[in-house]
Design goal:
6 copies of one chain form a homohexamer.
Chain A: H1 8-23, H2 29-34, E1 40-47, E2 51-52, H3 56-66, E3 71-74, E4 81-82, E5 87-94, H4 95-125, E6 132-135, H5 144-153, E7 157-158, E8 167-169, H6 171-177, H7 180-190, E9 196-200, H8 203-211, E10 216-220, H9 224-234, E11 239-243, H10 251-255, E12 261-263, H11 266-269, E13 276-279
Parallel strand pairs in A: 6-7, 6-12, 8-9, 9-10, 10-11, 11-12
Antiparallel strand pairs in A: 1-5, 1-13, 2-4, 3-5
Helix pairs in contact in A: 1-3, 1-4, 3-4, 4-5, 8-9
């Protein structure tokens, strides 16, 4: 099933703000001066590298907010795997509006496609294992819902959306609460009925966490050997999530240890934009 | 001279929005349950890798908006070169507030320090040449002013801030306007008194652009040999800016061709966050 | 004459905010997972109890903001008296959008219909007397214009809309100003040309208020006997408004004392929602 | 443990909007005219009926936003059980500011205390059973986080905060999806790892839901006999939640059937405000 | 009595928006480059021409939002008549902040003082007559509350604040409603209890309006002779307001006709800013 | 070439805010009561005096936001020179919406046309000289982009849009920086590559500014004789801008001194609205 789109009421405000940030106090000096008011054009959003497209609704909203007369015809919807040269969408209409919205549309599309592409890469690398790749709260300020959507498009799962939808006891909580057991007990009492996840740094803490009945345990910065040991020791009594500096190169080895989830902050905090461009000239794919 | 900070009225709204995005509809379930209301703590923002710090005002604003009783003492202000283990700032006060604001504060600090660090790397690499590194409009939606500030902190210059503060005629404008000369003439007529920059793909276009009196010429995707030829041909009649896929590895060679500026979109569109953490435990630097 | 609707620019922002509050950071998990993207449905807004409908524009705006393809056909417009089973409107279109907007639409419709129904009940109870029912500033934060509209739909009048459109001297003002006469004189001097209303607790204060030339006198917490005495004593020299814990059971007796207005805070501060539901199944009325 | 307060960044925007709604375009005509600029006063927030206080932060924010010189000293914090005459807080400072903010402060305090009081009433009534009272998404538009907080203060639990933090398959979803089993399967596939709740109307549907592995089953509009039968039949294979027109009078009987949770929309959609007043005169409790 | 100030919650948002509009995406390039970060200065707001000061809260808010360390000491508060050279306030503190906020502070102060000064001029000119000067809804978009406040400061009264706080039947309403009498009757029915004002162009319409019981009659574009006739004819049966192109030169003659009010749109739609400057050098008054 | 319009995303928010300011909490009492819901009308925006029209997009947006069914047909677009009686546009559709939006639409149109008309008057007066008229940052808070647009429509140029898009060293900067030369040097160092403008009061300062290499020099409050001397002395080494109390009467003499630009704050800070009205009656032009 394709990933359901975000509702327009969620997409529009962030695109509107991005457009205003780019238009400033005088609008598009270049386009207004150089492009005749009645010029029309047909352009293409085209991939210049391999990846997964995400964010077409954001891009389309940028064009439509600048000029409702611009038509967007999507050829490769969010989630499609792209090859260099693939045409993603056709954008037709008043040339001024298309050029004025171009950069904002691409800023969303290239960034969100970058998120989806990196996620897809990880998901492919661990295919066949029980592990699922997921993102974190290490997101770009103001873009959390958009980035989390792009992670889903790339085949990943969303960990917590915010501080309010799950309990995750991290090392600093443990330090202040005075130990893992006390922290878990306090969480159970304070947020009854909500699954409790706790971060552990070593196997002794793991034992404590299992003993205190944690639902999920975040194994922080452990190498595959240690992770394998943790999986064996846990023996299914808790869901295990590996975390900490895991990359495309190391993720397969991590996944093969038998953990349930692998969370990677870099999916959203260190994104390499996917190279997508708007081509005015006829395009040969 | 240190880079002047952004005024608080520019910083606060974006931090406020980021906090609300994280707090959701119930606030910080974990901290509220696990940390006693009267617990106080002393924590440190500490670098885990080499780089340049940027965004401390954003981080401090996150802490202060959550609890005005939190004190922030900056030890290494924006622009400081960091070594792993360097203490950047001390954060003291109510433990709940510090932990609730932690992620939002770090999201700004790690991202903006990432921007500054990458810029600093480029600036160092081209030191001694006439070239200056600058960023583009390929920014994260909603974060343009913040990212451009971080580029300045890292020793870079800001190209246009938006569509409204300079003329930059790109390939798509040229295509629609019907040639470089016509585009430049239209820009001169439509935006008198504003310097005109134009993008060219080859030396023939360069000649056209010089002939039409462009103030700055963007040399897109040319290798060092071609750039050197362009510099010679221009002979000072226009400012030259190199652009297109330039990386830390290739930038020195580009700078040595004699161009005046090198613009790199990746400084803001493909940022690797700098690893900064909040340490509750006493920290030995 | 039907009550004129509020302009869309007043309705849309409050509905948009309510939708975002419900959609959170990931949209409608259930509907997106369970309902096929191309499913269409025909649904009905139907009354489950007796009352007066109000707020259809708010409900329709919720549906349209989620998906402009949703069609709303109103069968019983705002102000209509409903019987259980009455069909209020037909909502047709993409099933996902209808289900996603359902709760927000109903939250407005049930609440505002609750306000209108309670008002209508009071208005009916005092029919034939000179008294008019009106609401107060005891409203739900953020919903004042909407609630006041619903009061009008239910046959009531709106007292002040805010602190800025009339003078109402309450007991605390009198206490600080040093007496009713001084308060009225100060009000006349400070807000010339604006009608002055003053709250009194007993007949001695009533005499003072009349003597000082109050335009309207709020008779606070008086029983019908005392109210009747007040009406007689005033002899038309001021408009009289009864207030304080008046309910559907007691309002007729109050109205028959001859007061001009009866203000009831509970119309907006203690609202019982009208039971309206969205029915997917064919509905027999 | 007392319920942790909502962060100020969540409270302030809604209070600010409520104040602006009341101040309109000219501010407080009455107070400005009647109360001298230099008058100071000491006032008390006092309960006029029995209940539970909630929303003091909202009230205090209203006073402080109008005049930072106003001091608020809380005597009975959120969650305290009140008797008529109990003094909740003392508000001291510039008289104008106190009177201008009074209505907005009380609108929050009376409403949220009303929510907490009703919840407390239910929680007390079912004390000793395994059932927990919880609220729904039937909230006042714009006040969801505030109302849900008040439910917690009153001893209740929060069901979903929005469409995005849990799966709840309702009758309309079932109707469109083509049956309970298909709906649950689709939810599992579309939102892996998220607990699934489904609404059932009769015992046949209950069996289907259990068979399909629902985590929680919402038993809609069943009488205690039927509920008891459902509890027996389920035999712990799913969490059971009773719902539908349950009131203070009927809730004990429902709780004694053995269900795990009782959700009551009226806790937030049909709130009777708690009578709290601001007293300028010395107050004898 | 001095005109009460607008509450800070009304002032701050409009000042914040104005600052952001001026700061753009990079802040104050000039001050940041030219003024040392630790420079402090003492400056004076000084009148350069005769007039009435208004808007000091807006100016002070601009300084404080840029830097809370800036101290503002008001020497001539809103409403004071100024002579050229009069010192209005002293502004002390960090030089950067003072210079960055200067233009925004002055834009409010010069404009609002311009409004107050013009109003004061009219009010002085008609002193001793029964007429009062008032403003209209012809205001600068976004500045209505501020401009209306400045009118009060200048000794004028505020006509309607908006479409929602009074009935004013204008020529276009009469044209569509089919005559003055029908329009007044409809207004009475639709907005019971609200005073009705109607615009008339000649004495025949005046008679109609009086006959239909208008509370206030707006005499549009009549010369003093005609106005005098209208006053005589009305004989106190309605409040009379003269309007239409009345200037400082003609207003005394209009006021002496005996009308109750004179409304002048130009007070807010065609404002000449009062010349106030910020002086860094010691200032001799 | 006609001045390009501002994008709708820039126009809509300011119009929306203005409408809400006028509608308040109850909408248009008069129109709702007096005009039948189904009445339609044809109206005309008509000039009552000579000038230049500007702001039709703002006016049209006001009508469309109130009722999308209103049609606007522009007959004399922005920039057209108007004679009294000229029909500017035809507005057709539901009478209620047209009357409700009328004042907001006119407030924009009359103000912005006032700006354009005054600018046009200056531009005409200096036609044939080398001087260009330009505006300043002395704008109405919240309306900078709109006013600057109107200046362009009137044939003027826009000086800085804000503090962030150019360096302008004013007298207060010079005073704090310790002289013109030091200020210019600091600006060059702090904002490399950005043209530097500096304000001078006399010819000695002019020499200093030229010596320090200022790009543009603002000649403040000099009479034509002094300006002529400044032009001769500068001999093309810097761009010269005259400023300070220049009016339509004196501008030609200033322009003939040979300066390059003349900046006039009054174009935006002291605007006389152009008299444009909405006529319901058939109109003979």
């Amino acid at each position: 099933m394709p990933i359901p789109p975000l509702p327009a009421v969620m997409v529009e405000p962030v695109v509107r703000a991005a457009l205003l940030e780019d238009l400033g106090r005088a609008g598009d000096l270049t386009t207004d001066a150089v492009v005749p008011a009645d010029a029309r054009t047909e352009t293409f959003l085209a991939a210049r590298q391999q990846g997964v497209v995400a964010g077409l609704d954001f891009a389309a909203t940028a064009f439509r907010l600048i000029d409702p007369a611009i038509e967007i015809q999507v050829e490769r919807p969010d989630g499609t795997r792209l090859q260099p040269g693939d045409r993603i969408a056709t954008i037709r209409g008043p040339a001024r509006g298309i050029l004025t919205a171009e950069r904002t549309a691409l800023n969303f599309l290239c960034h969100l496609s970058g998120v989806a592409s990196a996620t897809r890469g990880i998901a492919d690398a661990i295919a066949g294992t029980r592990a699922q790749v997921c993102c974190t709260r290490k997101t770009m300020p103001g873009l959390r819902a958009a980035q989390k959507y792009a992670v889903r498009v790339g085949g990943g799962a969303n960990h917590r959306f915010g501080l309010d939808d799950a309990v995750l006891i991290k090392d600093n909580h443990v330090a202040i609460a005075g130990g893992i057991v006390r922290a878990i007990e306090a969480a159970r009492a304070g947020s009854p009925g909500i699954p409790v996840e706790v971060e552990v740094d070593d196997l002794a803490q793991l034992d404590e966490a299992i003993g205190a009945g944690a639902d999920t345990i975040l194994l922080d910065n452990m190498d595959p050997g240690r992770l394998r040991e943790a999986v064996a020791r846990t023996a299914g009594r808790a869901r295990l999530e590996a975390s900490g500096g895991i990359t495309l190169d190391t993720v397969r080895a991590v996944a093969e240890t038998g953990v349930d989830a692998i969370s990677i902050g870099a999916l959203t905090h260190s994104v390499t934009a996917l190279d997508v461009s708007l081509e005015v000239h006829p395009w040969q794919s």
